[in-house]
Design goal:
Length: about 425
Amino acid sequence: MVEMRRHRVLLAAVLAATALQITGGAVADAAPPPGACHDPEPTRPQVREQPWAQQVLDPQRAWPHSRGSGVLVAVVDSGVDADHPQLRRPGKVLPGRDFYLTGALPGAFDCVSHGTGVAGIIAADQVPGVGFHGVAPDAAILPVRISDRDVGDRGESLRIDPQVVANGIRYAADQGAKVINLSLAGPDDYPAIRGAVAYAVAKDVLVVAAAGNAQRDASAELPSYPAAYDGVLGVGAVDIDGARMSGSQIGRYVDLVAPGEKVLATTRVDGHTYVDGTSFAAPFVAGTAALVRAAWPRLTAPEVAQRLMATASPARGGATGDGYGAGLVDPYRAVTDGLDLDNPAALPAHVPQPLDQARLDRIAWEQGTADVAKWLTIAAAGVVVLAAAMAVVLPRGRRRRWRAGRARSLPAEPAAVEPPEQIFLIADR
C-alpha cells in the first residue's frame, strides 16, 4: 500500500516537472512538485529580531577572515527550499537530488521545513530588517532529500529507510561535499549507514551528526547513530543559559555542543520559526566547519574536527563534562587561532646619517685624557710605595754603616726520640 502511494506521488511529481518545462515555469523554482508533499508545513511569518544563538556565537567576527566560500556543505535531510529569501542567491543552493521519491527529482524543495531550517543555520544570507543569518553565508548547500515526515520535529529518526540514508551520504561524498550535516539520530547501528559514513570519511569529508534527543535522565549513556561512528563529530544542544538541553543525549559520542533550544531557523516558502533539538545544534557546528575549511584549506577532516574541539569555549561540565564534550563551538576562535590577523608592517627605508666629526673628536679626546689619568695614577702609587720602602731601608743602612748583616742562625732541631723495639709476647700454650 505504501509502495503504491509512493508510485502515485512519483508519477504526479514527474508529470508536474514535465509541465513546468513546457510552460517555462509558472511557480517558484523550488516549489514542491504537486503530490510530493502529503502534509506540507504551513507558511510561517518572518522574525526580525536577532536570535540569541547568533548573539552568543557571533560568527560575524570570523567573516573578515572566512565566510565559507568554496566549501560545499551537504544537508542530508528533508530537502531545502531554495526559494527562501535568505537562500535564493544564485549558486547558494544546488539542485541536489531526491532519494526519498524514486526518480530524477532534485532535492531543492522541502515539505516540512526541517532541512530548510538546517540549511539556513549553516548558510542563510543577511537580508535587510532580519536579524537571523547563517554561520557561513558564502558556503554552498547541496540538498539531499532522504525523508518527508520520517524525521520528527526534534530530529529523531522515525521510519527512515537506512539504505536511502546511506545512498544520500554516498551521493554527497561523490559530489565533492567537504562537510555533511546529518541532523538525525537513532539507537540502531545499521550496516548500510555505517558503511556510507566510512565511505565519506575516507574521502576526507567531515561528517557532523546530531547526538539525539532521547535522554530522559543523566543515569546512563544511550546509543546514538550515526554520531557514534568513527570519524563523526557528534553535537549536543544547550539552552540560552549554556545548560544542556533537556533530552540532549549523554555519551562519549558528544564531541561539542551548540545552541539547540528555542533557536530560530528558516522555514519553507518564506519565514522563520523557533525550534528545539540537537538537529538544530548540529548545523551551527557544520557551518563553523565550513568557515574553517575555507580559511585552512590544507587541513584534513580529522584536523578540522580537532581544531573545532580545541577552540571550543568551556561548558558547564568542564572538559570532561557528560553531555558537553569539549565545550561550546566558537566560530571566531576556530577560524582565527594561529592566524596572523595583522598585515606585516613595512620596514622604514634606511637613510644613512652623516658622520658627526666633532663628536668623534670629543670622544677621542675624552678617551685619551682618561688613559693619561690612569697611567699618572699608577705612577703616583708606585712613587708612594718606593718612598715607603726607602723610609724603612735607609735608617737601617746608616746604623750598620752600610755593612751587610747576617741572618740569625736557625735553632737546632731537638733529637728525635725513637720508641724502643716492641717485644711481642706469645703466651705459652
